[in-house]
């Protein structure tokens, strides 16, 4: 049986991952509206990945005999200034999620919940990748600036994901 505190934190993380999916889907819709289809594609896949993360927590909590309690998902914003603003927000959001995963890991260690520690290790590693990917896109956007050719090239590249 999973400790109650871990159960509650994992339920909160399920909600956070679902929100992440909503946020990235909203960003994808903004990009689609602006005809940045490669950026939209990348963000839509990211939304799907976040949903898969939520389900990984859901399944884990179920396997451990915990009680799954789903809460309302906050609506994400729907408008951004430009592509750099979106990806700066993606990067900041991933840093926030990393903090949440780290807090889960700290609690698992505190509770001596070794099964949760092992499961959470996957998410710790995943967050390193998530932050690196977002940071790389932010860096690329800063390097190319508002040039149409550079943005078009990056759009095409991200559409290959």
Automatic annotation (TrEMBL):
PANTHER family in the cross-refs: BACTERIAL NON-HEME FERRITIN, FERRITIN
InterPro entries named in the record: Ferritin (IPR001519), Ferritin-like (IPR012347), Ferritin-like_diiron (IPR009040), Ferritin-like_SF (IPR009078), Ferritin_DPS_dom (IPR008331), Ferritin_prok (IPR041719)
TM regions (residue ranges): none
Name assigned to this protein: Ferritin
Leader peptide range in chain numbering: none
BP-aspect Gene Ontology terms: intracellular iron ion homeostasis
GO molecular function: identical protein binding; metal ion binding; oxidoreductase activity
Segments forming domain Ferritin-like diiron: 1-145
Keyword Transport found: no
Keywords: Iron, Iron storage, Metal-binding, Oxidoreductase
């Amino acid at each position: 049986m999973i400790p109650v505190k871990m159960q509650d934190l994992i339920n909160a993380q399920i909600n956070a991952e679902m929100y992440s999916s909503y946020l990235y889907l909203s960003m994808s819709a903004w990009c689609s509206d602006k005809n940045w289809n490669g950026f939209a594609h990348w963000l839509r896949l990211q939304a799907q990945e976040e949903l898969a993360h939520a389900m990984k927590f859901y399944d884990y909590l179920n396997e451990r005999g915990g009680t799954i309690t789903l809460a309302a998902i906050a609506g994400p914003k729907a408008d951004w200034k430009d592509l750099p603003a979106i990806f700066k927000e993606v990067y900041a959001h991933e840093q926030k999620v990393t903090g949440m995963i780290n807090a889960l890991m700290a609690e698992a260690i505190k509770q001596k919940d070794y099964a949760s520690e092992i499961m959470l290790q996957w998410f710790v590693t995943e967050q390193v990748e998530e932050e690196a990917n977002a940071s790389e896109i932010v860096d690329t956007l800063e390097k190319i600036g508002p040039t149409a050719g550079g943005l078009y090239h990056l759009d095409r590249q991200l559409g290959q994901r």
